[in-house]
Amino acid sequence: MRKTMNIDNIIQKQRDFAPILAQKPLKYRLDKLGKLRAALKGEWQSALVEAMQKDFGKGEVEVLLSEILPTLDNLKILIGKSKSWSKPQKIKTPITLFGSTSYTQVQPKGNTLIISPWNYPIFLTLHPLTSAFAAGNTAIIKPSEHTPHTSKVISRLIASIFDECEVCVVQGDRVFSQDLLKRRFDHIFFTGSTEVGKIVMEAASKHLTTVTLELGGKSPTIIDNTANAYAAGQRIAWAKFTNAGQICIAPDHIYVHEAKLEDFNKGITEAVSQYYGNDPIHSLDYVKIVNQGHFKRLKNMLEIAQTEGGEIIIGGEYSEEHRKIEPTVIVNPPKHSAMMKEEIFGPLLPVFTFTDLEEPIAEINSREHPLVVYIYSKNKRNIKHIQRVTKAGSTGVNISLLQIANNFLPFGGTGHSGMGKTNGHAGFLEFSNRRSYFYQWGVPINKILSAPYNQRKLNIVKTLLKRFY
């Protein structure tokens, strides 16, 4: 852990360097991002894979697909598009403001703080960093202490490319993070739980610092009576049990029309067997729970569910030695179950049946707005209705999780699931101040219509109102 004095020195260095970085040619920043891109494709890739294996038990294929690939994709977009995004954008000027020109141009916010989580420690650290640096900001990165091996490799990687006054990784525990938040930054980007997000926002408010909060919540799925429920079950199995359900946009719970329950159960059961075999605990493709604290929380949640009722159609077993819980699907547990009181963030999936579409809609709307609402349906009217009457950061139709792979699509929550957007252009803008410019070249209208007022000026105003408004 860095000492407080060192942190203060680093922050001051970055604050001093931020205006210098903003004045450097864009090529300077893009060259640095190009080096990061080359490192992720080259010599640092194996070190990151090895670190993820130690922290999570995650295999190489999954690390490359879920961590490295989307980071490289965002880098490709930023390197290719930042030049055009940085140019002045002409804005229409009304004819009544004759002799003037309007435009906007982005400026970096300055010195930023990025606090990243443990569930995707490479992607959710480097993804916001690349957006911040492309937009011209300096950055302090605070990675999660729960993935120590990965955090150490990321720290070395960053130090090999960026100067400390540009980007610096600092490491520490929760107390360290709370102390860090007392400092003044120009923007804070936080990914994590809603409760911690509130703490971040409160700390930022003391300095009127803007924030991006990528949070979570209980993202529901509705499978109506027109859906291919077998296919839905297979797709949801992948989306829910990848990373052992430790994903902010994983389906949290399912509402399936009772006529489609059998098909759904068949689809998800066969998919889990196909992905992880008959013994997921010992599958090398099935990751472990990140630490003992989270394992205990999920184990308790499962044990309570087993005593409360509901039919477990797959899973239900766990191994403390391997820190793994089987992919578990529980049909019709009590609505007051512990699983329904908080975001599950693990491989437990409650499934509820319904006959009237308004039932799940009412339950969704009774909770805080989720990060995603997933809809499986062939009925366009049902799809549009659900989209219209619910609120969420995004919607996935007939697919789950895959929307995060589109870096051209803005991603973020609303309300308790977050604020602000990331990915591609949206992420670039999130770390930018869109500054407005208004140039007057000729005689301004206020010269003609300023006091003292008279009948002639009144007639001009009335003519303007009549013809242009």
Strand order of the largest sheet: 10-13-14-9-8-15-16
Low-confidence stretches: 1-5
Number of helices: 16
Beta fraction: 15-25%
CATH superfamily of the largest domain: Aldehyde Dehydrogenase, Chain A, domain 1
Percent helix among the residues? 40-55%
The backbone outline, from C-alpha atoms, is: globular
CATH class of the largest domain: Alpha Beta
Taking Cα atoms only, what radius of gyration do you get, to the nearest Å? 26 Å
The total beta strand count reads: 18
Q: Largest sheet at a glance? A: 7 strands, mixed
Alpha carbon gap, first and last residue: 62 Å
> What's the CATH topology label of the largest domain?
Aldehyde Dehydrogenase, Chain A, domain 1
Q: Average pLDDT value? A: 96
Notes on the protein architecture:
The protein has 469 residues and is an alpha/beta fold. It has 2 domains: 4-215 and 419-433, 3-Layer(aba) Sandwich (Aldehyde Dehydrogenase, Chain A, domain 1), CATH 3.40.605.10; 220-412, Aldehyde Dehydrogenase, Chain A, domain 2 (3-Layer(aba) Sandwich). The chain is 45% helix and 18% strand. The chain has 16 helices and 18 strands. The strands form 4 sheets. The chain has a 7-stranded mixed beta sheet with strand order 10-13-14-9-8-15-16, with helices on both faces. α13 (380-389) links the parallel β15 and β16. α2 (26-41) packs antiparallel against α4 (60-86). The longest helix is centred in the N-terminal third of the chain and has 27 residues, at 60-86. The model is unreliable at 1-5 (pLDDT under 50).
